[in-house]
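SDR family oxidoreductase
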Amino acid sequence: MNDPYTERVALVTGSSRGVGRLIAEHFLYGGARVIGVARGGSDLAHERYQHIEADVADAAAVNALFASLRTAGTAPDIVVNNAAVLTSQYAMIMPASAAEAMLAVNLLAPFLVSREAAKLMRKKKWGRIINIGSMAASLEPAGDSVYAACKTGLSTLANVMAKEFAPMNVTCNTLAITAFETDMLRQLPRDKIDAVIAGLPLPRYATADDILNVVDFFASERSSYVTAQTLFLGGVH
């Protein structure tokens, strides 16, 4: 099919830039109606794109977001929990505020969004929840204690929700990406990232197609028997 998402509504968090922007544009290209969510605005302009400014780590904001969708008669078929923050510092010098921010955005937010989305998916008896994880969950690099723990927790969150949501025909999976050129990546020392990539079985940076290929797989109608899975790119395991 040229437009595999024509009948779908996709909600993407952290859609204003980076991987989230990439995924939002991909769904638009595939014919979906896309709801992008970010704390700030977006310059993505498309007739099928709706941008909502909201802090997905705030329970009240998430509840208000989904209340507005219900009022509009809109229910997402596909949810991509992509919003994330990263502070890479050794544990002894990391401020508690930075750790708390990562826990809120990287772990609490996917819980809040997935929970509310599932309530709408239940009525449709169909849904795909896709979490964007990280190689850090497996490689556990120094300086990423909280970030890696959040991404490990994200997979566990999806696995448990997969069991809870299975009777509703809603799947929950995680795509753990390797280094990909984003603003977040550019915060980190390039020599350290290069060293990590050099140690992978497939020693290269991720491409857009690497990521979108797996997103399509998880979102596909044909993947109804695939749930509670974490797929690591680059040979990470």
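thats it. Strands lie at 9-13, 33-38, 49-53, 78-81, 127-134, 170-177, 229-232. The chain has a mean pLDDT of 95. bye
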